[in-house]
Write a structure and sequence with these properties.
single chain, alpha/beta, five-stranded parallel beta sheet, elongated
Length: 375
């Protein structure tokens, strides 16, 4: 998923106080504080509590739990329901002390789960991975896991229609492939030690990276490791979305539609507007591929106002551009031009170069058609 979509999920979960706990992977401590400030500005949070920690032995694990527990006892009086637990990193902390810390956190899982507050762990990448592996019982209890690290760049990919960009952030394809290698190696090592597949921790992130990097051969290889009936319930929606994208990008429309429908049902059940809009946008694209233009237009017209409501400018631009694609196919050049120019304006605003390039190309095609009509 893109950064914006991950952020929206976190924001909506805080707005609705849906899970008891969440984990967020982020790049730096300063970005963790920027994240909290951004959430506070957008949601006007009630009084909330920040606890910073270093993974430094048993005592540190007990102390942060006690701080969270003490604060949760008075949270009702202060109209507070949210506690942010901020990882300061493990610099200068000996490895045995780090392990002791996470093993203690793991042993305290029931105490963390009993707190009367929404607990959000904001973790640096290295500690996020340690928490997943060492404190595995605790992390299995955490239903929401958010990745706010940068995602791979969209690369060109041969398909029957233009690639729609759904991300404005990215890491290089080379970095993505390196990260996939690291995840698969960690999976193999953990499998030897633990004796079971660690799908959530290694394979799903690797599959996600491969799909977003448009390395479909690698994605297919990783997918073979994943047994669908072994996926945890909390990860089913992500699994459906990844499979949709995998089959969509490999032009296997029937399988893509099957997984998109599953994803859409789950999105509607939890009333996640970002995911609902995504479902209708890509339903329209599938319909467009099979020349069901009226059905495609209906789907885009459902997605567009939702994207506007949640202020997702990239989703809005993608919808408008897709509507332009229908008009272009049906030789409604005036309507197509209007749509592409509107989409182009948004893509420029949010600095999405792929969207800009697609729109400029289509506008050029319209002008070429018009010049032929004049002749």
């Amino acid at each position: 998923m893109s950064y914006a979509e991950e952020y929206d999920i976190l924001k909506n979960s805080i707005k609705n106080i849906m899970p008891d706990m969440a984990m967020v992977r982020i790049e730096t401590v300063s970005k963790a504080h920027e994240l909290i400030e951004s959430l506070n500005l957008q949601l006007k949070l009630p009084a909330f509590y920040n606890i910073e920690f270093q993974p430094n032995g048993v005592r540190a694990a007990v102390e942060i739990l006690n701080k969270a527990r003490d604060f949760s006892l008075i949270s009702k009086e202060q109209d507070t329901e949210i506690i942010f637990i901020i990882d300061k990193g493990s610099l200068n902390v000996p490895e045995p002390d780090q392990i002791d810390f996470w093993e203690t956190m793991n042993a305290q899982r029931e105490l963390w789960g009993s707190l009367k507050a929404y607990i959000i762990f904001i973790m640096l990448p290295e500690e996020y991975d340690k928490m997943l592996i060492i404190a595995h019982h605790l992390t299995d209890w955490i239903p929401l896991k958010i990745d706010l690290l940068k995602k791979p760049d969209q690369k060109s990919f041969t398909d029957t229609q233009k690639i729609i960009s759904d991300s404005s952030d990215g890491i290089s394809g080379k970095t993505a492939l390196s990260e996939i290698d690291n995840l698969l190696q960690s999976f193999k090592e953990a499998e030897k030690k633990r004796g079971k597949s660690l799908i959530r921790r290694f394979l799903l992130p690797a599959f996600d990276l491969a799909v977003d990097a448009f390395d479909m051969k690698r994605a297919a290889e990783i997918r073979k490791y994943i047994a669908e009936d072994k996926i945890q319930k909390a990860d089913i929606m992500q699994w459906n979305r990844l499979n949709f994208k995998f089959y969509f990008y490999t032009s296997k429309n029937r399988k893509a539609a099957e997984y998109l429908l599953r994803f859409k049902k789950d999105a509607e059940q939890i009333q996640d507007k970002s995911k609902i809009a995504f479902s209708y946008l890509y339903t329209g694209m599938l319909k467009f591929r099979t020349s069901e233009n009226k059905e495609a237009l209906k789907s885009y017209e459902i997605a567009l106002p939702i994207y506007k409501e949640i202020r997702n400018r990239l989703g809005e631009a993608n919808c408008i551009s897709s509507i332009g694609e229908i008009h272009l196919r049906e030789s409604h050049n005036v309507e197509a031009l209007k749509a592409y120019e509107a989409a182009l304006s948004i893509y420029k605003e949010i600095r999405n170069r792929l969207g800009e390039a697609n729109c400029i190309s289509s506008i050029g095609e319209i002008h070429l058609r018009e010049s032929h009509n004049v002749e």
